[in-house]
Amino acid sequence: MSETTVRPATESPARPGATSKVSIVMFSGTADKFIPLGVFTQAAAALGMQVLVFVTGFALRGFTKEHHDLPFPAEFAGAAPDLERGMRAANVASWDAMLRQARQMGARVYACSMMSEVMGLGRGDYGDLVDDVVGAATFLEEAEGGETLFI
Amino acid sequence: MSALPAGDGRPGDGGGPAAVPPPRHTVVDARGSACPGPITDLSLAYRRSSVGDVIELLATDPGVEPDTRAWAAKTGNRVISVEHRDGTIVVLLEITRR
Fold this sequence. Notes:
Number of helices of chain B: 2
Structural class of chain A: alpha/beta
Structural class of chain B: alpha+beta
Strand content of chain B: 25-35%
Helix content of chain B: 10-25%
CATH topology of chain A: Hypothetical Protein Ychn, Chain: A
CATH architecture of chain A: 3-Layer(aba) Sandwich
Order of helices and strands of chain B: EEHEHEE
Number of domains of chain A: 1
CATH superfamily of chain A: DsrEFH-like
Largest interface: A-B, 26 and 31 residues
Distance between the termini of chain B: 22 Å
Strand content of chain A: 15-25%
Strand order of the largest sheet of chain B: 1-2-3-5-4
Oligomer: heterodimer
Largest sheet of chain A: 5 strands, parallel
């Protein structure tokens, strides 16, 4: 372990104790992008931030009761086994375990109503990670004034 | 993760019902846990803490020092010290805000 030098926290622009929020649009359905979804959701919840995830597009396949093996993007498929080995070696939690932890700390997850209908998915088709099925307006209204990430 | 009270915890008697309980020193062992595990373990311990308590976070994730400082800045708490001991990063935090 090497020594690291970091700037003192007093230089941080963060306002101590300020309530802030981060909202994430989870659009990609590939396995690699579910890793940052889990990490940022859990980290934001740990910082005491209000966290909201809006799942749409092929990402919805990761949230159904029916299991779907999430594919890696074709250009990285060859490197996927090494990545998975590295993740195990570094003891990185699975994306869904991270999201579950974040939800226990207050994060909420919405599934997109329009894409759910397009994909033939009803509320009962989603597993325990989904809090509600809502439209874009609900998400945008709740996300207003905070940081928004698109994955 | 484990969060065990170390040193002397709150005494069960003495001081009467109006007395402010003495500060606790809680050790949070997040060694072997990857980001964002340590900061999550810290946050969970923080939720059970009171102002004046000290949390000692043990971790091996290389991002722990800057992340803990960011957590403290964000939540309004104080990093007392950061030490690197035989591959373990030991962060002492004082809970100054709940």
